[in-house]
Amino acid sequence: MTPSSSPTSTRSDVNGVVSSRGVLGVSALRPDGIPKVQGRFAFSSDAWADNMLWGATLRSPHPHAKIRSIDVSRALAINGVSAVITADDVPGQLTYGLITSDQPVFARDVVRYAGEPVAAVAADHPETARRALDAIRVEYEVLAPLVDAEAAIAGSHPTIHPDGNVIRRQRVVRGDQTFIGDVVVEGTYEIGMQDQAFLGLEAALALPDDDNGGVELFVATQWLHEDQKQIAACLNLPLDKVRLTLGGVGGAFGGREDISLQVHCCLLALKTGRPIKMQYGREESFFGHIHRHPARIFMRHHADRDGTLRRVEARVVLDGGAYASTSSAVLINAVTHMQGPYKCDIATVDGYAVRSNNPPCGAMRGFGVVQACFAHESQMDKLAVACGMDPVDIRLKNAMRTGDKLITGQTMDSVAPVERCIRETAALPLPPLLPEEPDVLQLPGGSGLTARRSNVKRGVGWGVSIKNLMYSEGFDDYATARCRLSNGIVTLQFATAEVGQGFVVLAQQIARSVLGVDTVLLEPISTAIGSAGSTSASRQTWMSGGAVDGACRVVRERLFEHVAQRHGLDPLRLVIEGTDVVDSMGSLRFSVAEASRDLVFDETFEHHHRATEELDENGQGNCHVAFAFVAHRAVVDVDVDLGLVKVVQVATAQDVGRVLNPLAALGQVEGGIAQGLGLAVMEEIVLVDGKMRNPSFTDYLLPTALDAPDVLVSMIEEPEPQAPLGAKGIGEPPCISVTPAIVAAIRDATGKDLSRVPVRPQDIVFG
Amino acid sequence: MTVVNATSIDEVVDALRRLPQARLLQGGTDVMVEINLNRAGAGDVIALRQVSELRRWYVDEESRTLHLGAGVPYAELERSPLCNLLPALAEAARTVGSPQIRAAGSLGGNLGTCSPAGDGLPVLSAYDAMVHLRNADGSRQMSIHDFMVGVKRNASAADELITGISMQLTRGFQGYAKVGTRNAMVISVASACLVHDSERGSIRVAFGAVAPTIVRARNAEAWLAENVELVGAIDVSGRLAREFGERAATECTPIDDHRSTAAYRRHAVSVLAERLLLRAATPNTTGNRAS
Amino acid sequence: MTSSQDQGNEFYALTVNGMRHQVQDAWVGESLLYVLRERLGLPGTKGACEQGECGSCTVVMDGEAVCACLVMAATAVDADIVTVEGLSTDGEPTDVQRSFVDAGGVQCGFCTPGLIVAVHALLERNSSPSELEIREAISGNICRCTGYGRIFEAVRQARDTRQQGAQ
Fold first, then answer.
1. Contact call for B101 and C52, based on CB within 8 A
2. Residue A701 sits in a domain of what CATH number?
3. A494 and A598 share a domain?
4. Has residue A349 been placed in a domain?
5. Do C109 and A6 touch (CB under 8 A)?
6. d(Cα A135, Cα A144) in Å, to the nearest integer?
7. Is the dihedral angle over the CA atoms B82, B84, B85, B86 positive or is it negative?
8. Nearest to B290 among C6, C67, C136 (CB)
9. Above 80 in pLDDT, residue A343?
10. A699 lies in a domain?
11. Number of Cβ pairs closer than 8 Å across A and B?
């Protein structure tokens, strides 16, 4: 086997600080690791309370229908059923939503997607609750569903929502709109609907206050304060009467940014006066959260004969499904990233996010850029062929640099080592050829014994991407953290959702580095402190990391002031060395524990990124905060006659700013690559007339251990001056350009013109 | 809802007489999924977990017939000695679900559910296996071909238990191949089993997931027998193998669904049959296992 | 032969991690996964698909790793069941548990208990699994966070540590 990447091979461990103290730069171990491996870590689905009832949701089987009547009487008559609620039981706002409040808590008059909640029940056992759902009689008048995004744009279908069938249209227009390149290539690309498929299903426990005047919710989410705001509005309660604590989160990837069961769970708790536990099964999870937008993108690239990219044209159509969720922001990301990580002065981009009776779509890792990247990277390969160039050379030739103008008119002022990403990826070794007598598990089809070595062709493909970091278009997604130092022990508090990414260990590392302590305790993650913003958009290392760093630095200042005053020194002479406070110009040295004995330093800090602007009608404006870059090279073996693919190896060099925890960083990179692989060759929610055909892990296929490629990683460390810790977010880039790289490799192996992901066996055979 | 934990075949058939609507529960991969997903209703269940008789197997040396209990787990079919007696069945077993599923599931479940995508069924078909059934009145056996009557429908009576399968062992190549869209733990998009009986001079080929039940490509088998000497080692050209695959594929009636398309399925079984026949002609280079 | 009905007056007993547990007043259709988590106070076993397609609920039953969601609890009365909580008798992490943390095999951690049980079962029957044997043995355990790289490394570390210990 090819040796796969290991943390010891990363740049940081070679050049970084050698320390056993778990400071920044080393592979400190996560504090929740041991509880998780022992099964002791409490996920939200593990929450439990005395006297609790089970909640369950009734969902529409139709993608579009009028509700004529709902009869809950037979459900209420079932022994063990405590409550049945519908839209009539929502005391406050009847809708919720991240950007626009357009999604009903329960459908009242009309259902707009198959799976939309219509009612909920509370009962003494999950099975009783399921029987109660079966007993609710809903009379529907089925309507024709709008399932074609083009029909939504054309206005050829009746309006399915008061807000209209187009959620947002955004153009990006820049430069000479009449320009025609010497070389022109074009294509239409399709991206299927991907699911986040986090393993830990949606779950929550709601505890009503004694007087039923408020509620406490333990829930797996990405953004506690946003949930709190939306829930409180629906419950018609003041914010302080809705208190949220993060239940252990079993992955998120964007799928927990929207409300799912939160409002239902709280409503049932307040209605019954008893604790309510709700948890979705896998099938319900597919209906209960938003997905990655399926997209259809036409692109035309104009270049000089030498391969210099001059103009990109694009028409982007994202199907947002029944409700808006974050569609408008996803669209902005797609249209503003259409040039890819390449310098390009002229753009003609037109984008739509439309409403349909398909399941709602919203955030998923990569957020609009995944779709854009599949199109622009497929185009770059076409351009390379048209110009007679190598796929690597054409990308190097056009690689964006710091200081270049983007198609939005924004100046790229992030560190932009695109060329280095490509070169360092290319320098990673290619995998060995298949052995003469390969094990079947090394071949496409694996233990299915479909292929022999002679049936297999190898291909290599490239993908490079640019990804914005943090929220855009004027949104101030600040983060808050609190640091308390006493007797050499730091306690940190923040509302940053730990979804698996490892912020909990990063926060400890920051405190150890800044304050010279070893013991860093973490308060429960809850709304008891100010917002941290969402765990999304590759933003928490930068934003919440910046907040923790800021809070620790303020505490350090207070500590130094105290020590300086006591010893008659200028506080500016004091530094932290290891676990000591040291006078850099004298001999004074004592431990932080000693310096903080019987004292309490307690500071709260908010980190804000620089302000951004909304785009104008031509898509011009400084709408993004910062950017990160990555390159991927994929090697695949394809059984061409059967269309089966084995991804052999993915090599990547990623622009990370600075590696703060090599092991955690590697985990993000490898994990993202697996998700991008899934989109490339297997993952898709199949819809027929608005209905999901495969809402299960039997038929929605995720990569297994036998699908995982060997991954070679080079971390590119050029500290980002804007970033509080010099580190860029690393969560999203790994999953973006790996998808087009794999598809390019399949094209290389097969000679087929593949323009759709996931690539299915029949696409290869008949393509 | 009643759950009966039977400990012997007699207890099972006795319970079946009393509860003819009861579901039989062995590996749980069908019945428990239906219960978990609320699709089973609250019907009665007879659990076979403790019926060790169903997990026995033996070879009748005289007739060279293998008798397999319906509850022998796939994991055991994968291992020695069974994998040496029936390599194609071992290959099929290795493609069933995950290692966890293979530890629990068995051919009895494949037969009882009778899905055309049941991974073991093409092997049983290619082997002309006999299915052994029993109820309180006695036992009977029927050909696998008569047993499978439609999509998820079989010919057993409501009060009958599938006790086992018998197959006459052959000498010569046998192989199985299955197409799925990932490299492990996947439902069959198309599968095939080819058995060369080099003593009697026949080649039998069966396909899964390309028709309402498992398909035996009898016309292609007959065509092959007319064109190739099948006693002893066989010699086939690439062209002949391709034609064999194409002919065999015409005997399938696949459908479009969310897992694949009819056209791809027909194409896939054609390729699988072609490749399996070529392997039968050069059997020394197949069946590598992880070592 | 025993039978259980959901009349509320039946009970059965399970042997989990060496201890007998009485299960009373349960609906007999409950899976072993549900009973472990909701009735026996053993929530370490996780459920993520309810149909044997993710491995999160892997437990060892009579020496074999199986999916607890596919076992009807009322039928497991004769079985010896080991869950993630029962792998260690003294509360200290096992070698496999330790290696998962050290190698970075844990992110969200939801698939982790099932993987830990599956890897223990693997190393019990094969003390020196090859790279491909490792991959095949855990191919029924879906992990959505890690891409498996650090999990393979964790299994290698546990394997190598055991082999060094055996020498």
1. yes
2. 3.30.365.10
3. yes
4. no
5. no
6. 26
7. positive
8. C136
9. yes
10. yes
11. 110
Q: Where are the alpha helices (DSSP H) in A95-243?
A: 126-135, 149-154, 224-235
Same domain, A638 and A581: no
CATH for the stretch C95-166: 1.10.150.120
Question: pLDDT by residue (tens digit) across C17-61?
Answer: 999 999 998 888 999 999 999 999 999 999 999 999 999 999 999
CB proximity list for C19: less than 8 A, separation 6 or greater: none
Q: Give pLDDT tens digits for A732-744.
A: 999 999 999 999 9
A282 contacts on C by Cβ (under 8 Å): 48-51, 54
Q: What is the pLDDT of residue C8?
A: 45
Distance from CA of B137 to the nearest CA of A (A): 37
How confident is the model over A387-406, as pLDDT tens digits?
Answer: 999 999 999 999 999 999 99
Q: Are residues A542 and A669 in the same domain?
A: no
- Cα separations in angstroms, B160 against A119, B7, B69, B82, C2: 42, 16, 15, 27, 20
**The domain that contains A136 carries what CATH number?**
3.90.1170.50
Tokens found for residue A225: 């304060």
Q: With the CA atoms of C29, C33, C34 and C36 taken in that order, what torsion angle do they form, in degrees rounded to the nearest 10?
A: 120
A280–C contact, CB cutoff 8 A = no
Query: Residue C114 — very low, low, confident or very high, per pLDDT cuts 50/70/90?
Result: very high
Taking only the tens place, the pLDDT of each residue in A347-373 is: 999 999 999 999 999 999 999 999 999
ipTM field: 0.97
Does some domain include residue A715?
yes
Identify the CATH number of the domain defined by range C11-86.
3.10.20.30
Q: How far apart are the first and last CA of chain C?
A: 48
B264 touches chain A (CB under 8 A): yes
Same domain, A666 and A752: yes
Cα A694 to Cα A673: distance, rounded to the nearest angstrom: 23
pLDDT at A14: 34
CA distance A442 to A709: 10
Residues A68, A212: one domain? yes
Q: Domains in chain B, please, with CATH?
A: 3-168 (3.30.465.10), 174-284 (3.30.390.50)
A762 and B178 within 8 Å at the Cβ level: the answer is no
Domain that holds residue A760: 1-32+399-470+626-767
Q: Is C49 on the interface with B (CB under 8 A)?
A: no
Non-local CB neighbours of A346 within 8 Å, separated by 6+ positions: A174, A175, A176, A177, A179, A302, A310, A311, A312
Residues of A in contact with B257 (CB under 8 A): 693
* Confidence band of C89 (pLDDT split at 50, 70, 90): confident
Q: How far is B15 from chain C (nearest CA, A)?
A: 10
The answer on A516 and A405 residing in a single domain is no
A438 within domain boundaries: yes
- Whether A89 and A227 map to the same domain: the answer is yes
Q: How many other CB atoms are found less than 10 A from the CB of residue B211?
A: 17
* Per-domain residue ranges of chain C: 11-86, 95-166
> What local confidence, expressed as pLDDT, does residue B42 receive?
66
Chain A interface includes B157 (CB < 8 A): no
Are residues A429 and A535 part of one domain? Answer: no
